[in-house]
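Read as amino acids, tokens; as here:

___
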Amino acid sequence: MKDISSMEKSKEVISGLRANRESLYYTILFGAASIIAVVLLIVAFVQKNSPLKVYTYVMLPVFALATTAAARYTFVSKDRIYTKCGVLVIKSFFITRRFKIENIDRLTAATNNKDNVTTVNVVVGDRTASYKFKNMSKEEIAHLRRATQKH
């Protein structure tokens, strides 16, 4: 007998990659720079070095924000579009949108062959959400349409 609860918790990835190596690299790099800035701040206080204090006061927030932005981009680039428990989830940098599949009136996907950019429009009621994705294959577009069909 199948475990229905595990089926409900599983997600079906439509478009997504593993963690992007470059964004993971920048997350680690800026994280290390933030730690070094904290160490330099401690050293500046111990040695009463005012120029080093000013430098670390300026650079610590910059490195912390860069670490946060790189970590967010790493999180978003992994599994950008997936369905889970009858909900279509589309992740972008600033917001993650969730659409109940039963409420989706129409879903269109068109690829611009010149730029290799796919535009996905999700129509729910009188609202339309538009998303752009790079390098989305025809198989992924077909999978998206199949996954969002009402049964």
Remarks:
- Helices lie at 4-9, 21-47, 50-77, 138-147.
